[in-house]
Design brief:
Length: about 475
């Protein structure tokens, strides 16, 4: 059994008193038990996960695994507990999936034939045996996370801590995860799932809720059969964010421009990711870009933002190829919020992150602070509390909010948000959708990449499959 008793974690930052991130937490996980840990972004879930595997060692409270204390028996703890990181880049180190899975087994000094067998079996269990020799950078975000999961399966620990394993998974990926969890339970493995997705509640033994660092509920669940979950329903809207008080850029409804994609194609190491894509974006649209994992959505928006060059075809802002514009000009036209926030956040602190782009635009320090304060407030970050906080200490959901704020503060004509909904808890998803609708109402053109079913959101839907545009029209008509 994993047992956490009275665990306290304080987060220090310069110029402020320590913030208590975990406050006397008690938690248990038995072998053969599946537990769901839920809570809002920033509530301490990922920090708690790192304590369970011995990446963080307690100074107040204790964490034990089968009676062994993590602050005394770290090596043995890490043999018994496997952690799937929320961000796969923190876990993957090799060039191909097969090499990465084999790396952990090599550290166990297993015979080469055993390493080979276990590695291939693990990749087959996560559905990646056909991509075992592909470059990892050519994989989608969800596929990279499955490589990391294969690494854990090959090591065969007694306990699995899965930190948002479903964040970028499509319906097929969710079905795979459910099947794996069923297998692990049957093998008497303990599984702790950290997730914002409601469907897990029907497939676990207990649900533990953490709020502001405290466990506020630990209740029995009634596990149902491990069925494939239905397509995720569209979150409802309870309220609208109002962009007022010193920020926000309202564009004229008569403004005319056109972002044109003409016969776009892109390939990673000769592997096609996008094929003959043509479509226009015009002022005042709200376009939802949907499609299964690996359909080319992220590749498309990176091309539209001028961040990569197409293998063939072109992206034009009116008559100018967008990749030929200076970066400062390009981001005022098309601002992209990356699918993985860590790729976008370069500043040491929240304030530095926001000021970096604003000062590069030639704004004064006072105007930069005004815009930074406004952008933080509209994405739900309290400027006075977070401005000095290191970006890497934020939760993934908070980092996603910061990435949106950094782009929003520049007032782009087109705001592209790539799968950010998946990084947020359900209330955060509703808040972001309300914010995007309000921005759209005030004149910002919005492109939202999502795996969620948002048939009632936006003015237009682009549906991609296999790198091709299959549908371009009203969302409700599909």
């Amino acid at each position: 059994m994993i047992a956490v008793r009275g665990l306290v974690h304080r987060l220090s930052s310069s110029g402020s008193s320590p913030r208590v991130l975990l406050d006397r937490v008690d938690l248990s996980l038995e072998r053969g038990e599946v537990v769901l840990l839920v809570g809002r972004n920033g509530s301490g879930k990922t920090t708690l996960a790192r304590y369970l595997v011995g990446l963080l060692l307690p100074t107040e409270g204790t964490v034990t695994v089968d009676g062994l204390r993590t602050d005394r028996d770290v090596r043995e703890i890490r043999r018994r507990v496997g952690l799937l990181f929320q961000e796969s880049h923190e876990q993957l180190i090799a060039q191909t999936p097969l090499e990465d899975v084999a790396f952990g087994l090599e550290n166990l000094a297993l015979p080469p034939e055993e390493i080979h067998r276990r590695s291939w079996e693990a990749l087959e269990r996560v559905g990646l045996h056909e991509k075992a020799l592909c470059p990892i950078e050519s994989l989608t975000s969800s596929e990279r996370q499955r490589v990391a999961l294969a690494g854990l399966l090959a090591m065969d620990p007694a306990y699995y801590i899965l930190d948002e394993p479903d964040r970028t998974a499509d319906r097929e990926g969710l079905a795979l995860l459910l099947s794996l969890v069923r297998e692990l339970r049957a093998q008497s493995k303990g599984v702790l799932i950290i997730s914002h997705k409601e469907f897990w509640k029907d497939h676990v033994d207990r649900v533990v809720r953490i709020e502001q660092g405290r466990v506020v509920a630990d209740s029995q669940a009634s596990p149902g059969p491990f069925a494939v979950p239905p397509a995720t329903a569209r979150p409802g809207f309870a309220w609208t964010v109002h962009l007022a008080g010193g920020g926000g850029k309202a564009y004229s409804p008569d403004e005319v421009w056109r972002l044109q994609a003409r016969h776009l194609a892109f390939a990673y190491n000769a592997l096609p990711a996008l094929k003959d894509f043509s479509a226009d974006v015009t002022a005042g649209e709200f376009i939802v870009i949907n499609g299964p994992e690996g359909s080319g959505k992220t590749t498309l928006v990176e091309l539209l933002a001028g961040l990569v060059l197409p293998t063939s075809g072109s992206v034009l802002w009116d008559d100018t190829p967008i990749h030929t514009m200076r970066a400062q000009e390009r981001v005022r036209r098309v601002g992209l919020v990356f699918q993985e926030p860590y790729q976008q956040l370069l500043g040491e602190s929240v304030q530095e992150e926001l000021f970096m782009g604003l000062l590069a635009q030639g704004l004064s320090l006072s105007e930069s602070e005004e815009r930074a304060r406004w952008a933080c407030e509209v994405v739900g970050l309290e400027w006075g509390l977070v401005r000095e906080q290191p970006s890497h200490q934020l939760s993934v959901g908070e980092q996603a909010r910061l990435a949106i704020a950094a782009v929003l503060a520049i007032y782009p004509r087109v705001l592209i948000v790539d799968e950010t909904l998946s990084a947020l808890d359900p209330p955060g998803q509703r808040e972001l959708l309300a914010l995007l609708q309000e921005l759209h109402a005030q004149g910002t053109t919005v492109l939202l990449v999502t795996s969620e079913d948002l048939s009632n959101v936006g003015t237009c839907l682009w549906r991609l499959e296999g790198g091709r545009l299959l549908y371009n029209g009203p969302p409700e008509a599909l």
